Amino acid sequence: MTGLHHMLIHFPIVLWLAAAALLLAGCAGRAPAWGSPVLRLILPLALLAAIAALITGLLAWSPQAIMASPLGRNKLAFALWLVTCWGVLSWLHFRHGEALFEPGLRLLTATLGILGVVLLLITATQGGLLAGVSAGVPDLLRAMGFEVYTTLRQPWWSLLVLLAVLAALVTLGRR
Amino acid sequence: MHRANAITLLLLVALVTSWLGQALIGPPQPDGAPENLWLPLQVQAQHDGETIHLRLRLPSRNEHRYHDVLRFDGEAWQVLGADQHPELFGEERVAMLLDDGKVPEFSRFGGYLLIGDGTRFMPGAADEDDVAEHPLLGQELGLSDVRKHLPNTRLGSWDAPVSAEALRAQREAGYFLDLWHWRGDRGGPVSVSDDMHVAEHRYGDSGRSAYGTNWDGDAEQPRYMLDPNRHGAAGLRWQDFENGNIDWSSEPWLSEETALPFNPDHDWQAGDTLPRRMLRQPDGSRGQIAARSQLQDGWREVVLSRSLDTGEPLEDKILKPGGAYTVAFAVHSEGATGRHHHVSLPFSLALDRPADIPVTQMDGDTPDWSEPGRTITLFYPGQVNWPRITGPRHAGAQSVAEGIPVRARHDARKLALYGVEAETETGVLWNWAASLLLGLLLLGVLPWSLGRPVAREQAS
């Protein structure tokens, strides 16, 4: 299953990077005319390929082994956030189309697009480390305060802020 | 502010907060774990064809630390050690495991190999009564706990050893590790290192060790006291420990040459303190490693010297010019006891051959340490044992089974971080799960927060 995961994971990486380029170009007002139809095609394709890669990745090791490894836990968390982030972007594009590039929404679109790329970079880095390969990104992340070999955790004050942000988003949604 | 921009701002607040939280929280800090998870150890070695000299240097700020002491509280004598006062007690120790290739897994996995099922200080440690009652381990070998042992001395769990005949055959075939164990208090002051070995148990070599206890259990009092004529008093003062005013230059230890029999009629005052260890000259195989130690410029230097061939092939690894071996190191410092030490990965050591630690031929009668040595990074290993490494909870168990060395996959940095997490796993998992869930909810709720208002705006 590990080999299949390594093969499948290339598809969402390429498709999401292409999608990010088109989304950011759109936010900058430089979207090509064919941008939106292409996005409508590659975003669902990338999501499907990513879900397949996620499933094969989960089956590469036993759940027990994934949960016992700090790197395994982090990879799982980032992979789930990555798929969710691009799932949200895919949904927003499906729902709002080119309105995503208009002044009201383009800041959010650009933020999610950049977040999607950063999550992709970190998730792929962790995948490389699990396969025994490092491209130096862990050192960069470490310098920025994220030790990839330590399980993602948050202090209590940070969890409280995140809960408050969640409450604010829910409140906005209910208005 | 436009609703989407408000959502973006909230998203950025969440991202910055979580990144800051992750950066500030640091690795977990289990009870008893050293504050610094890594420690440098400088290693140099030379030989003269008869004797090998090993120079080990580690950061230290202690002229000396007693392993433990006996303190008079005004009515009775109490034993005090690192458990009660880790800031004062717990001797410094440097240990080296040595193999000649007869334990092939050791060169790949180092000391992890020795932490088997039931090992003391680890989760699932064997009950001492159960060990004592075990027909082979307790009744025949006289053991009362499970210590470091080699995996093939068991058929699985700690209480399933191979037969006594098989253990003897393994030993004669060289299936054991030599253990050079310098103890700063228990032997250090009389310039010897403990000579031990690990097979089905961690044993001292045959012969007399360099230390005994200064406690008379029947009389519930010390056996010996300091010589007032030599040390100015029959005991030390507790306040001097607390204030760091012990005069180590007076060599205030109890040894066969200098100690006086304990006098219960002496005017003992509350706070009077005596070493709990009685030092003596070792003999037999146990005392074959000479040791010199000094503190200089914040570094503890320990020079261990041993004959290449001790004549004890069932307890020591015999070294030969041109030979290649595997070593791994451990250091107990700053009051660390038991498993709360720093350890190294395995390294090659070879006489007159290239190796991680080359042992060069001496030019004169004394070793020349002017050339720089190898600096090894020791790390805190946490509660990771051999069953975990070879079991289903380790994703690399298959690689271990295939014989892929630990250094091909892990380094000291990663192993220490993994080690402390293995020790605090439940708390780490809960926090990770909460963080993961919050992240998913924050992302997942975005379309809902945005969707309805946009739809309303479009409808209007």
Percentage of residues in strands of chain B: 25-35%
Query: What's the Cα radius of gyration of chain A?
Result: 17 Å
Largest interface: A-B, 57 and 64 residues
Please tell me how large the radius of gyration of chain B is: 27 Å
Note the gap between the termini of chain B. 18 Å
What do you see in this structure?
The complex is a heterodimer of chains A (175) and B (460). With 175 residues, chain A is mainly α. Chain A has one domain (2-174). Helices cover 79% and strands 0% of the residues of chain A. Chain A is built from 8 helices and no strands. Chain A has helices at residues 2-8, 10-27, 35-60, 63-68, 70-96, 103-130, 137-143, 156-174. Chain A is globular, with a radius of gyration of 17 Å. Chain B has a domain at 38-63 and 82-208 and 285-425. Chain B contains 12 helices and 24 strands. Chain B is an alpha+beta fold and 460 residues long. Chain B is globular and about 90 Å long. The longest helix of chain B has 23 residues, at 3-25. A 10-stranded mixed barrel of chain B has the order 1-2-19-18-7-6-5-20-22-23. A 4-stranded antiparallel sheet of chain B has the order 4-3-16-13. Classes of the chains: A mainly alpha (175), B alpha+beta (460). At the A-B interface, helix 4, helix 5, helix 6 and helix 8 of A face helix 1, helix 10, helix 11 and helix 12 of B.
